[in-house]
Amino acid sequence: MKKLFFVLIALFIANSANAQWFFNKERLANLENFDKKRFSWGYYLGFNSYDFKFDYKDQYEDDNTDIQVERSPGFNVGLIGDMRINQYVNLRLEPGLYFTQRNLTYSGFEERKDYLREVKSTYIHVPLLLKISTKRLNNIKPFVVGGISTSINLSSNENNPEDNEQGRFRMTKSTNYYELGFGIDLYLYFFKFTPSIRGVFAMSNELVPDDDPNSPWTGNIEKLGTRGIFVNFTFQ
Description:
By secondary structure, the protein is mainly β. The protein has a single domain, classed as Porin (Beta Barrel). Helix content is 11%, strand content 51%. The chain has 2 helices and 10 strands, in the order αβββββαβββββ. Strands 1, 2, 3, 4, 5, 6, 7, 8, 9 and 10 form a 10-stranded antiparallel sheet that branches. β6 and β7 form a beta hairpin. It is elongated and about 65 Å long. About 6% of the residues have low confidence.
């Protein structure tokens, strides 16, 4: 997933030069003075696809011992605070609520209550991002964005005394990430609309292991980290 995002961003930057040639015909400019403001505000709606990356203590040749992750599309909603640094660089704060669910399937069990863990998560997600844009091309402006973020998982079960023996999969309440993505600003008549896509990768171990060090659910997990894709639609 990391390599895919680096390739996509490289293609995006390479194509921006071609885009300038394609859009160089002068057109009527919407919101001409929008980007001259020091601060601007907005909100976003979007979708997410969260996944888990597992690092195992013992890696077996039989892939059936790996934990299988079933992803479900989730929903994002949040606010935007944007500070203009110069013509091409902006600093952005994008706090929001992110809802998602991942289902974990373990091998070696026969009963559903043992082999399936439904991991429902509600995140308060706060990214601090650096947005680097190209020159505005009539009513569009492509950009790349990257930064760091932190989140609070309101459904983590971190302090729950019950663990997988009682059907409770536990994760840490807070996690730090790095983020990387790209998008395009579209200057419409009344507002600026921005579709974007971003990859998110956890930098810390999110697993709260079971009390039993030999637990069949967590005993072989060295590290558990979230990774995901966000597709947001911003209105400013």
